[in-house]
DNA sequence: TTGTAGGCGTTATCAT
DNA sequence: ATGATAACGCCTACAA
């Protein structure tokens, strides 16, 4: 198939492999116009394509970075990936995408495989349960960036939403429009899932700041699939919430499923706000007020950090990059009467 | 950083590189239990990780396949990618994902880069405007599969929806529920975009089969962003449509934007059906009747085909795999009175 | 300005 | 059962 090698080109052009190599690397400086042309012709004629693998072996760099995500289907993932790809494209890098499915074992295997494949850097949406693996990378100063989640106890550049602020923003917005019976809707709370916990904390802090109580009655945690049922249960209680804060797009779906099935009117009976600016937010009725993550900026930053780390080769102190959420005011909340 | 090589392991274990290599490739057959253990220990102690690049150079296979898509953000893409990744994962392959942004030049560059990186196969969501590039691959018998779109004149395994049937399905369903004034809503029609044309043809055929006329009045083609405006224009005309067939998720958004802004009631004033089972289909009000593509099956098949081609190494005649759409009956169409 | 030679880390072929 | 040695295709001194 493709067996044309540099040697073939060299022979046809009547020069040595080195010269061809020079040519390929655009070091024309001391090359006669004459040979340059001959080489170009030979390449053309043979349809020569350099073998980057061979080059990589020598140069110890592959111009590819690995990205391990825990959920490829998640909208955030897709958008961040897109930005990463774009940033890599600019620099002539390629991206190997791996989906861990939030399984730490798979994640670990992927890290090892990618390292074996000599990727130049790694961007990970971590499961959060592989501290040892990450720590080794950090010790080796291997270019690594976390996105969306971070791993407590592992000092790595991390790109994430200012979750605390996002939750505060939700509560503030509700409160300033007269809502008090605010509940947070979230997947099960597990300690290693940092964003989840941060959102809860932000929620709690903002509530308490206003003297609103936070207890079981306004923390609704369940698997997305079980959410509608859980919400229905909550809504028969006397002091049912009149404002729901869904901490991500998946829980939002649970909430919307519920209001539809139960015939609860939005925003008259219950107001809704959520994190993640879902694509249907403004065609839904009522248009959904959301809190958007700057996904593109986050992806870009993540890529930029790996590249900087690749350059630096000295750990210039890992940093956490917090991105500010932005409120997208629409109509799933009744305005006024603060 | 990672300079531990096979030679180091060999030295520490007091064996030759060859033996270590055997060990790594699990050819224990003629290896003493003793040396086996020594090697294992050495590897452990040094934290040795094989260099797959070096292996690839020798074996001429990289266990990675390249995927070039024209729009990473598209839902179909994401889901198909997911399936491809999963299928590759099973076989120990990795996936390099590239986004052409529907730009033929970028697409071409990516093909070249991926070949230079020695990927073992290529799955492409083609822009449709690089026949020459593809034809070369075909001549070289390079494992290649097209997804979603195909390229007329290039004989390659292609995985796509039965677009004709999908469009027929839409018309049939409308018609059998008493609708006559059916319009198709599509992005601009360009000849190299095969699915688009096929959907239009299916629409036309199904309409004519019933003696419904097809003309300018029921082909609404515009850039998604311009669709709401275009639809508004159409809806002031006397014989306005009472059924809209959106050929993909993007045009659906345009349609929904329009009905919301114009206050057109669904399904009372206009019924809607579309291709692509968008995630919010059943939380929308009314729940959207859609025509789903088996995205997962399509991705899986695409991956399987590349692997088969890699095995076969003989062009066993390129095939087009048509996947059947499935109707997801919900409530954006009034039932009955056929 | 161009060529020679050695090496990158692994595998494969033969010996032993 | 294990080892020596030559590739794999490219890059890079250094030599000419």
Report on the structure:
The structure is a homodimer of 338-residue chains. With 338 residues, the first copy, chain A, is α/β, with parallel strands linked by helices. In chain A, 43% of the residues lie in helices and 16% in strands. Chain A contains twelve helices and twelve strands. Chain A has helices at residues 6-13, 17-24, 33-46, 52-59, 75-90, 104-116, 131-139, 163-176, 194-209, 227-234, 249-262, 295-312, and strands at 64-69, 94-99, 121-124, 144-147, 157-161, 182-186, 219-221, 243-246, 271-275, 289-292, 320-323, 326-328. Chains A and B meet through helix 4, helix 5, strand 2, helix 6 and helix 11 of A and helix 4, helix 5, strand 2, helix 6 and helix 11 of B. The first copy, chain A, binds a DNA duplex (16 and 16 nucleotides) through residues 5-7, 15-22, 24-25, 29-32, 35, 50-60.
């Amino acid at each position: 198939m493709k067996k044309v090698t540099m040697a073939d080109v060299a022979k046809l052009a009547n020069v040595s492999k080195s010269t061809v190599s020079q040519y390929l690397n655009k070091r024309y400086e001391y090359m006669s116009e004459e040979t340059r042309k001959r080489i170009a012709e030979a390449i053309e004629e043979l349809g020569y394509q350099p073998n980057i693998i061979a080059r990589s072996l020598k140069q110890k760099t592959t111009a590819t970075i690995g990205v391990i995500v825990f959920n490829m289907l998640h909208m955030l993932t897709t958008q961040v990936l897109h930005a990463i790809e774009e940033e890599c494209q600019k620099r002539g890098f390629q991206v190997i995408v791996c989906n861990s499915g939030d399984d730490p074992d798979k994640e670990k295997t992927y890290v090892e495989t990618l390292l074996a494949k000599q990727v130049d850097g790694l961007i990970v949406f971590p499961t959060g349960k592989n501290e040892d693996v990450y720590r080794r990378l950090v010790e080796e100063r291997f270019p690594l960036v976390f996105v969306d989640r971070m791993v407590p106890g592992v000092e790595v550049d991390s790109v994430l939403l200012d979750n605390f602020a996002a939750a505060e923003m939700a509560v503030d917005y509700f409160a300033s429009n007269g809502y008090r019976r605010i509940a947070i809707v979230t997947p099960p709370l597990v300690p290693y899932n940092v964003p989840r916990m941060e959102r809860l904390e932000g929620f709690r802090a903002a509530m308490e700041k206003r003297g609103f109580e936070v207890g079981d009655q306004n923390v609704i945690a369940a698997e997305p699939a079980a959410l509608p049922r859980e919400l229905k249960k909550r809504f028969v209680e006397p002091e049912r919430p009149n404002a729901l804060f869904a901490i991500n797009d998946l829980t939002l779906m649970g909430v919307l499923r519920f209001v539809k099935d139960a015939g609860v009117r939005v925003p008259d009976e219950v107001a809704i706000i959520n994190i993640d600016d879902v694509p249907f937010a403004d065609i839904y009725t009522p248009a959904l007020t959301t809190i958007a993550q700057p996904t593109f900026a986050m992806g870009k930053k993540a890529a930029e950090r790996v590249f900087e780390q690749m350059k630096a080769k000295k750990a210039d102190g890992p940093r956490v990059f917090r991105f500010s959420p932005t409120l997208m005011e629409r109509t799933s909340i009744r305005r006024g009467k603060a």
